C-alpha cells in the first residue's frame, strides 16, 4: 500500500512539472516572446485554459504528502522554509498577474501584471531549482546557496524550453515563429520533469520510512481511487477542448 | 511577540482572509449554476447575461480563495510540523481526500467552465459549473471534518506518542462536525444572497438600464439569503448542546472568543429576523422600494463580519489546544522555528495577500458598477482578437 501511494505522489509531482512547467516557462519568456501587447495577449491566452488544471497538481502533491507521508511533510516543508515561502509568494504573484491583467482597461495596468507573471514565474523556477537541489542533498545543507542558484537557473532553462515548445505547438508559426508536434511537446515535458523525477526516485526510501500506517493508507485508497477515472477524464477533456485544433484564437480569453 | 504568537498571527491572518473569499465562493457557486441551468433550459438571453455577470463576480472572488488557500495548505508543514508529526496519520487523511477528491476536480472543471464558453457543448458546459459546485461543497465537508477533529479528536487513539486512526467513520459522525457543517454552508448561502441583494439594489437605485435583470436577481438574493440565514442560525444554536459534550466552558475563558461569539449572534440573529419578517414577505415589492435600496447595499458586508467572528469564536475558544486536550499549539509548532523566519514570511504573506485582497474587492466593486453589458467572462468575439481587444477587457 505504501508503494502505491509513493507511486501516486511521484506521478503527481512529475505531472506538475510536465504540465505546469510550460506555464512557468511561458511566463519566463513573456518579455522575450511578447514584445508587443498583442503577442503577450496571445501567449497568455494560449496557456490560460490549462493553468487551473495544471497548477492544481502541486496542491495534490502537498495533500498526498500530508495524508500518506505525514512525517515527511513536516520535515520537508520546514526544512525548506525560505524556499517554500518564496515559492508560494511567486506562485501567488504569477497567478494574480493572470487573473487580474484583463480586469481593467489600459495598457499600463496590463503591462504591470504581465511583469508580475514574469516575476512570479522566475521566482517559481528559481525556488524549484533550489528546492530540488536541497532535497537531492538530503536537506542537510543550507536551503539557499550558490549551487542551489545554479540549479535554479537550469530549472528556469528547462521550463523555458518547455514553454517555448508548448507555444510552438498551440500557436503554430505564432510568437515563436516555429511549429512543433505533440511528440516534441511530450519530449520537452520529459525535460522539464526529469529533475523532479530523479529527486523523487532518490527520496523514495526516505519517504517510505515516513509513510502513514496501513489503516490510514487503506482509507485513503478506498475513498480516492474511485475518483481516479473522473480526475483523469477531466484532465484529458481539458486537452481535447483546448488543443491546437480548437481554434485557440477564435475567442477572447478571460486571462 | 514571541515566535508562537507570530506563527499564530500568520495562521489567523491567512485563515481569515481565506474564509472571507471562500464563503462567497461557496455562496455564489450554486446560484451561478442554477442561473446557468435556467439559461440552458430556456435559451433566454436574460439568463445568459445573468450567468455571465454573476459568474464573473464569482470568478474574480475565486482568485483570492486560491491564493490564500495555497498558503493555508503549505503552512501546516511550515509552522506546525508538530501537528503532522503527532496527528498526521489521522488529520492528514481528510486533507488529502480534500485535495485529490475535491479541489483537484474543482480547479480542473472551473478552468473548463471559464474558458469553455462558446466552445463546449451546452449541457456539458452546465455540467462543469455543477461539478465545480459539488466539489466545492465536498471540499467544505472534508475541511470541516479536519477542523472538527481538532475540536474533538474522535476516531483516534494515542499509541507510542502519536495518534493512530482507529475509526474513520467517527471523523464524519463527529459531533463537532454534524451541526457546524450545515452552519457554515448556511452562512455561505447567506453571504452569497447578500452580495446578490446588495449589487442588485445598487443597480436599481442608480436606475440603470437593466431593471428586469436586477429585479429578478434581488428577489433571488433575498430568497437565498433567507434560507441560508435560517439554516445558519438554526444550526448555530444547535451547536451549543453538542459543544457541552466536548468543549464545556469554551467561551468563558478566552475574551476574544466570547466577543466573536456575541457579535456573530447579534448580526446573525438581527438579520435573520429582518429577512424572515420584513424582506422575505415583501420580496415581490422590495425591488420597487427605492428607500430600501441603500439599506440593502449597506448591509452587504455584515455576513462577512459575522463569519469571521464565528471562526474566531471556534478557533480562539479552543486555546491553548491545537487538538483539544491532546496537543497544545505550543507543542505543535515546528521545532527550530525562529522569530526571524516567521516575521519575514508573515510580512510577505500578509502584505501580498492583503494587497491582492484589496485589489480583488475593488475589482469586484468595479465589475458590479459596470454592470452586465461589459462582462469579459464568456464574451463572444470575432475571429481577430486584436479587433476586440479594447472592448473585451472589463
UniProtKB/TrEMBL annotation, chain A:
Keyword annotations of the record: Cell membrane, Membrane, Transmembrane, Transmembrane helix
Protein family membership: Belongs to the cytochrome ubiquinol oxidase subunit 2 family.
Keyword Ubl conjugation set for record: no
Protein topology in the membrane: Multi-pass membrane protein
Annotated compartments: Cell membrane
Superkingdom per UniProt: Bacteria
Cited InterPro entries: Cyt-d_oxidase_su2
Pfam family name, one: Cyt_bd_oxida_II
Protein name: Cytochrome BD ubiquinol oxidase subunit II
Transmembrane segments: 6-31, 43-68, 80-100, 112-136, 148-171, 183-207, 219-242
TrEMBL record, chain B:
Membrane spanning residue stretches: 20-41, 53-72, 92-116, 123-145, 184-205, 217-238, 258-283, 295-313, 341-364
Domain of life: Bacteria
Membrane topology, from the record: Multi-pass membrane protein
Primary location recorded for the protein, binned into one broad class: membrane
This protein's UniProt keywords: Cell membrane, Electron transport, Heme, Iron, Membrane, Metal-binding, Transmembrane, Transmembrane helix, Transport
Coiled coil: none
Family in the record: Belongs to the cytochrome ubiquinol oxidase subunit 1 family.
Name by which UniProt lists this protein: Cytochrome ubiquinol oxidase subunit I
Organism field: Streptosporangium pseudovulgare
